[in-house]
Design goal:
Chain lengths: ~80, ~200
């Protein structure tokens, strides 16, 4: 929690093996995921700040809504 | 709970049993629609998934009421044990056991979906297939032991629900999912670029 205040950032990561191009992630988090022409996700936001509640919420919805469980929210460790 | 019986409990049990069947059918039809990627234009694909999930919760609630009413009512000697352990009911042992199996499978599917993120996806998937068995058992339970089983409306319901779920299974097997369907209409990229109108 303390990390978040200091501005830890997060990103969505797709497991390309599990992903089967259902496209739910794009519908649920259009601001983070776009689709290529075959319907597979392209993560557009490389990182978003953990205190951005709306983006975090979108990301969580996308993770929860993925029928293939191919998405995770990854914390980017400070570099 | 000694000797507590009122016709209303039995009525509740029958009514919620029938409603459960309808709701479970809806859930069973929506599942294959998710996996065959229906939606994306008028309704989001995610929405079908959400509907599948939330309706399954409502269905489970009705099943819970169905079981509770039956267990509380001492008109038939079905105890709380028989709700979860098959073949323990002195009353109509086999058909009640089939209902019990349906419930047990349902609970397995529910719990594995609840803890989906913590499970290996293929394990979740394997257990999720059990929902077909659960549905068939529930349908058979209603037909074999339902007080209303031989009334015309319940027969129509049984046949209708059976047919709908069969159709969903056939659809699931034969439908060619829109695999590389590409962008859905909900996609901002799919919208015609501003200023580029069809002439």
């Amino acid at each position: 929690m303390a990390m978040r205040k200091r501005g830890a950032s997060f990103r969505l990561v797709v497991d390309p093996v599990r992903c089967d191009g259902y496209g739910h992630c794009h519908e649920l988090a259009p601001e983070l995921v776009t689709l290529d022409e075959w319907g597979y996700p392209i993560i557009t936001a490389n990182a978003f700040p953990g205190n951005d509640r709306e983006l975090m919420r979108s990301a969580q919805l996308a993770v929860r809504g993925c029928p293939r469980m191919a998405l995770v929210i990854e914390k980017i460790s400070a570099q | 709970m000694i000797g507590f019986t009122t016709p209303y409990l039995w009525y509740s049990s029958r009514a919620t049993g029938a409603v459960s069947l309808c709701l479970l059918t809806l859930v069973m039809v929506l599942g294959p629609l998710v996996s065959t990627r229906v939606g994306g234009r008028r309704i989001g694909r995610f929405a079908i998934n959400e509907l599948h999930r939330s309706l399954s919760m409502v269905a489970m609630l009705f099943v819970a009421i169905h079981v509770t009413a039956t267990v509380i009512d001492t008109y038939v000697p079905i105890g709380i044990l028989s709700a979860f352990v098959p073949f323990t009911s002195p009353y109509r042992r086999l058909p009640v056991a089939i209902g019990t199996v349906a419930i047990d499978l349902m609970i397995a599917v529910w719990l594995t979906s609840y803890f989906k993120e913590k499970l290996r996806p293929d394990l979740w998937r394997a257990i999720h297939w059990l929902s077909y068995g659960s549905f068939v058992a529930a349908l058979a339970h209603g037909y074999l032991t339902g007080t209303d089983a031989h009334t015309r409306w319940y027969l129509i319901l049984t046949v209708g629900c059976g047919a709908a779920s069969m159709a969903a299974i056939v659809w699931r097997i034969t439908a060619r999912p829109e695999r590389a369907g590409g962008r859905t209409a909900l996609s901002p990229l799919d919208a015609p670029a501003p200023g580029r109108r069809k002439s």
